[in-house]
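Exercise 4. Each item below gives a protein and its sequence. For each, produce the structure-token representation.

Item: NADH dehydrogenase subunit 4L (Penstemon smallii).
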Amino acid sequence: MHTLLIMHHILLMNIILIILIINMTYLLIMMKIKVFMLL
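Answer:
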């Protein structure tokens, strides 16, 4: 039971990290597109 809880917590942390990375890359791409549009 205790190990299951730890596994679940690690999984949640990984999902949050992945979402953060995706959001950061998305923001970077959008900023680059805006810069290109301005040029």
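Check: The CA atoms of residues 1 and 7 lie 10 Å apart.
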